[in-house]
Design goal:
- The protein is an alpha/beta fold.
- It has a single domain (3-135), classed as 3-Layer(aba) Sandwich (Rossmann fold), CATH 3.40.50.
- The chain has four helices and six strands.
- It has helices at residues 37-53, 67-77, 94-106, 127-135, and strands at residues 3-7, 9-11, 33-35, 57-63, 81-86, 112-114.
- A four-stranded parallel β-sheet has the order 5-4-1-6, sandwiched between helices. Strands 2-3 form a two-stranded antiparallel sheet.
- Strand 4, helix 2 (67-77) and strand 5 (81-86) form a beta-alpha-beta unit.
- The longest helix is centred in the first third of the chain and has 17 residues, at 37-53.
């Protein structure tokens, strides 16, 4: 079973956040970024299924160059492939990000797409459902365990 896991890189949840001069963005100077914890859960589930059923796990992330560090971390955890779609997250809204991710997902073979329940930071829970809608896929949200049935 081939899985795609979309991840977001977010400020460390223990970091002290400062607002940048224009009062519209956070000041990223010296800020540590991590894979969103909910996306880590999605990645863990995809890897668990890969280990049990075979297939590949591809992680996809949209963002600036620093996102490559998060993608390498996901590869170290057991993902087989990674795709970086370069862009500035601060300049995009949820629908814009969903459109970019949907286009990237269409370009790779997959059986299932995973998202964390929400991105830590924005906490809006919109991108995953929007991607499902754009791709015409059914969706289930906030899954805590998944056991795929054997192929028939």
């Amino acid at each position: 079973m081939n899985s795609v896991v979309c991840i977001a890189q977010v400020p460390d949840t223990e970091a002290r956040i400062k607002i940048a001069g224009e009062n519209r963005r956070i000041d990223e100077a010296g800020l540590k970024f991590i894979v969103s914890p909910y996306d880590e859960f999605a990645l863990e589930e995809a890897i668990r299924i890969k280990d049990a059923k075979g297939g590949d796990v591809m992680v996809i992330a949209f963002g600036p160059d620093r996102v490559q560090l998060a993608l390498r971390e996901c590869l170290a955890r057991g993902a087989n492939k990674a795709m970086h779609v370069k862009g500035e997250v601060a300049d995009a809204d949820s629908l814009g990000i969903a459109k970019v991710l949907a286009a990237a997902i269409k370009s790779v073979p997959h059986d299932v797409v995973f998202f964390g329940k929400q991105g830590v930071g924005t906490d809006n829970s919109l991108v995953g459902p929007m991607v499902a809608e754009l791709l015409g896929y059914p969706q289930v949200n906030v899954v805590t365990h998944l056991e795929p049935a054997a192929a028939s």
